[in-house]
Specification:
Layout (H helix, E strand, L loop, with lengths): L1 H15 L7 E7 L6 E10 L17 E8 L8 H15 L5 E7 L3 H9 L3 E6 L12 E7 L7
Parallel strand pairs: 3-4
Antiparallel strand pairs: 1-2, 2-3, 4-6, 5-6
Length: 153
Amino acid sequence: MGENGERLAELLALCDASTGEWFNYGWAITLRASGEVIGDARTWNSTARTAAGVLAPGKHPVQHAALAYVLHTDYHRQGYGREAAGALVSWLFAERRTSTVVAAAYEPNTPSIRLLRSLGFSPDPAIPTDRDTAGKGFPLLMFRLDGPQQSSD
C-alpha cells in the first residue's frame, strides 16, 4: 500500500468516525468548470492544544479547529488557495461554531504565510525545528484566527 496509501486510509477512517462534535474531514479542492482536483484540505477539531502545539482530535464541544491545505504547483498564485481556505474558515465558524481556527506554515513558505494573514490570521507561537515531527528542518510557524463570539442560546 505504501506510505501515502496508509496515510490516506488513516484519514478516511478518521473522516468515517467523525460525529457532530468531533470531526476530521478531508476536502478535495476542485475547479468549478471541469471538476479537476487541484489540491486538498483538511479540517479537524479539539478543545485544547497538544504539547507539540498543534491540535489533536477531541471528543468535547468544538472550541478550536485546525486547517491545512495543499495545492498543485500549477495552481499557485491564482487565488484558489485563498478561496478554499476562506470557505473552510467560514464553514468552521458558521457550521461548526468554532471559536478559534489555527493553521501552520513552514518558515520559508511565504505565499502560505501571506494567504493566512490575508484571511486575518495572526502569528501564534512557533514550533522549533527540533519538535517538528514531519522532519522538514524548518521552524513551523503557527497562526490563529479568533471567530465571532458565539451566543449561548
